Amino acid sequence: MTDFYTLKKDKIDHWYKEPWMLLVLGGPVIVVVAAVITFYIAWHGSDNVVSKDYYRQGVNIGKDISRDKKAIEYRMQANVSTDSKGQIQLRLEGKTLPETIQMYVSSYSRSSEFEDSQKITLTQVKQGVYDGSIKIPSPSDSENTKVWYVKIAGPDWRLTGDWHDPLHIPLQLKPQN
Q1: How far is CA 31 from the centre of its chain?
Q2: Where are the alpha helices (DSSP H) in the chain?
Q3: Rounded CA separation 131/135 (Å)
Q4: Rounded CA separation 132/88 (Å)
Q5: I want to staple 103 with a disulfide (CB 3.0 to 4.6 A). Which of 39, 111, 116, 120 is the partner?
Q6: Angle, CA of 131, 132 and 135, to the nearest 5°
Q7: Concatenated DSSP letters for 115-166?
């Protein structure tokens, strides 16, 4: 008669087959998998553009804004082209055309940790046309290089822009408002 009052379980359930265990462990497992996927995306898709002189650039930003205004006042604009040998030709239009112009080119490739910066002196060969040479990255670096940041500076003005595919497409620079 004692068997009548005790509950017997006919079948033994394992802990991993219980639906409540799936709810208890499922959430943390999903979070861990999502964290691993997010870390992978962040690691392989990171953009590590860090300028070596970031502090100096931040300090001089006020001066740069006034130089942009001067470029608007002088109605400066430029067209820049290069070839595979590294020869640069700059065609400059505006009120003041100096004998030499400083051109700063910064590029970033995924194979290097920092950006590669070059300072190029362009000399005037005829009215409004300047020539110079630039170090072209190796073919493996040029495939990884996305954009060249270009700054052309006169005595009291500047023109800046991003140059996508510099070996094939010329760059047109106009003053920024």
Answers
A1: 31
A2: 2-5, 19-44, 54-59, 61-73, 139-144
A3: 14
A4: 5
A5: 120
A6: 150
A7: -EEEEEEEEEEETTEEEEE--PPPHHHHHH--EEEEEEE-SS-EEEEEEEST
Tracing tokens 């300090």 back to the chain, one arrives at 59
| Contact criterion met (CB below 8 Å) for 161 and 79 | no
Q: What global pTM score does this model have?
A: 0.60
pLDDT at 10 over 90: no
pLDDT score of 139 = 59
Angle formed at CA 110 by CA 114 and CA 142, multiple of 5 degrees:
105
At 95-129, the pLDDT tens digits run 888 888 899 988 766 555 556 788 999 999 999 99
Q: Which structure tokens are listed for 26? A: 């499922």
Neighbours of 161 (CB within 10 A): 18
> Using alpha carbons only, how large is the chain's radius of gyration in Å?
31
